[in-house]
Design brief:
With 221 residues, the chain is α+β, with helices and mostly antiparallel strands. 24% of the residues lie in helices and 39% in strands. The protein contains four helices and 13 strands. A six-stranded mixed beta barrel has the order 1-3-2-6-5-4. The protein has a four-stranded mixed beta sheet with strand order 10-7-9-12, with no helix packed on it. The protein has a three-stranded antiparallel beta sheet with strand order 8-13-11. A hairpin with a 2-residue loop joins strand 4 (62-66) and strand 5 (69-80). The longest helix has 34 residues, at 184-217.
Length: 221
């Protein structure tokens, strides 16, 4: 527990719509739940929480300290304002370091494909995260995929090719494609097709709009 990053929290008595008052004072409402115990309403400092979210992946274990008591947990949910993006709510899920958990890991692309470097191909990043299971202390913050091994167009990396630490099981379908090099002309053709469809739809939309205008101005007989 001493090696875990900790964040301070305090019990929260304000609930419902009244939590907006907390947010205006730089406090974020949250809950700590799980492990067959009652959910506890908590509140946390906005700046400390933003720092935690910026420096730790959700798959990493943290210690939520509530009135001096440490809760071993993972961040299970974060709510932000849809436009302003400030924090609205956070959920922590209690865990045991001795029991496996299931989490989603981000798939990071590293390196550069020789086929992309020569402008023959374009990298298609098809899968951005995978589901894994294992003991919390063994789960990495993310999975790196080195695309420098993809030397030709149509070369691909699938879930079955991903490398994870010992004791970690990938639950996502092993046949799922993670990345692939496609011919650069395919991307251009896709963009041209999309433009053609949009152009073809425009006259129809204009005709329908004109018809609607005519109908609206037509006097009843």
């Amino acid at each position: 527990m001493a090696d875990l990053t900790s964040i301070q929290a305090s019990p929260r008595e304000v609930v419902g719509k009244k939590v907006s008052v907390l947010r205006r004072t730089g406090i974020v409402p949250g809950n700590v739940y799980g492990r067959n115990r009652d959910s506890q309403a908590v509140q946390l400092d906005n700046k400390q929480l933003e720092h935690l979210l910026a420096t730790h992946a959700r798959s990493q274990v943290v210690a939520v300290v509530v009135d001096g008591r440490e809760e071993t947990a993972m961040i299970s949910g974060v709510q932000r304002h849809p436009t302003r993006q400030h924090l609205l709510h956070v959920d922590f899920h209690r865990i045991s370091m001795d029991e496996p958990v299931q989490v989603a890991l981000t798939v990071n692309v590293i390196g550069e494909s020789p086929a992309v470097r020569t402008s023959e191909g374009v990298l298609l990043h098809n899968l951005t995260e995978v589901s894994v299971q294992g003991l919390p202390g063994n789960i990495p913050s993310a999975i790196d995929v080195d695309v420098s091994t993809l030397e030709e167009v149509d070369a691909a990396i699938h879930v079955r090719d991903l490398v994870v630490p010992e004791g970690i099981e990938i639950l996502t379908d092993p046949e799922e494609m993670v990345v692939k090099i496609i011919h650069s002309t395919l991307e251009e053709e896709a963009e041209e097709d999309a433009a053609a469809v949009e152009a073809a739809a425009a006259p129809v939309a204009e005709t329908e709009a004109e018809a609607g205008t005519e109908e609206s101005t037509e006097k009843p007989s």
